[in-house]
Amino acid sequence: MLIEKYTEGISLKRSVDAGTAEQRKAVQEIIANVRKDGDQALYSYTETFDQVKLEKLPVSEAEIERAVSSISNEAYSIITEAAENIRSFHEKQLRNSWMTTKESGTMLGQKITPLDAVGVYVPGGTAAYPSSVLMNVLPAKAAGVKRIVMVSPPGKDGRLSEAVLAAAKIAGISEIYSVGGAQAIAALAYGTDTIAKVDKIVGPGNIFVALAKREVFGDVAIDMIAGPSEIAILADESALAPDVAADLLSQAEHDVRASSVLITTSSVLAEEVALEVEKQLEKLPRREIAEAAIRDYGRIILCADMEEGIHAVNEIAPEHLEIITKDSFEVMAKIRHAGAIFLGRYSSEPVGDYFAGPNHVLPTNGTARFSSPLNVDDFQKKSSIIMYSETDFRENAEKIAGFARLEGLEAHARAVEIRGVK
User: Fold this and answer.
1) How far out from the chain centre does Cα 402 lie?
2) How many angstroms from the chain centroid is the CA of residue 417?
3) What whole-number distance in Å separates Cα of residue 223 and Cα of residue 132?
4) Does the CA dihedral 114-90-172-159 come out positive or negative?
5) Which tens digits make up the pLDDT trace of 235-245?
6) Which of 196, 203, 162 is nearest to 180 (CA)?
């Protein structure tokens, strides 16, 4: 890994893939065809893209139960315990509606209402991501969403992953469809005879899924357009090089464009980690992917002191931040921009990915400067409540009408004055 000294205005080669013109056009055509032909387009695209000729889109309760019985007791127990941790964490995020009453009788407040319907996209095909099910479904459940529908592309055998279906069962959802890609996003956004439309779509996917989410945004809400995964590790001389290298590689194996960055005040640690990364790469099953990511997007940044290191982190605004220092809590207090913060040796990033409880759907590409992890608030909406008293109305009517006229909106002013106030 390249070792370099920190300079102000550090820039990492990160980006959200906007797709090619051909990919964007293809996605637009898929969406248009699903809006026009509904289920028939879903069957056709599944046969074309997934090489599966489906007889039906819904996954039956029997199929779900068969999947549950097929996985090992140990796997089911692990998913169940992870689900409880995630559920418990997100239930603590719940907010209540509130009202305040003035002495004059005016009541002002906020009403919090869960979304009616949410669609969860879970990647499938050659891979299985039960963690995606839990992280996207359980916050929606905690928020009180009544209808949660899951879509996922089928494997070559026409079925969804057993682990994914088991996670769905544990998370408490049963409306599941074997369909993926841009066509699934279109179905969720606009509805078909089989799949009723939703209000928001969440969950990761490939470039075609990401482009489809971008296209339908505005007709429905979406969680985010995520870029490749990234990790920054802020460490001093107390950190152990094998730990740091392993954590850098845990992100690098995701994608050839994943970003893994060590920010350290220790030149000794920097050299040791650079060597350790090469050593661990040799035995990594996904070596080719991780090696490309480390080569093109891996960095070791050497800082003069911890204050400079903290400044570098806040500039980068990483998706995942590990702080492995002697005084990690003091350092954490000075961090302003990071999606998730992991403190100490035993808080390796995969702990948060799968089991601890906080959400692993996080802002990437520096958007942690203004965005938050997926949370309960993402599945609720807020309505303002205004019940103005006659006393306050008569006291403020002239001011309100005057403000309206400042903006040239005479009808606004008259709507106030017609109530008997001149």
Assistant:
1) 45
2) 48
3) 13
4) positive
5) 999 999 999 99
6) 203
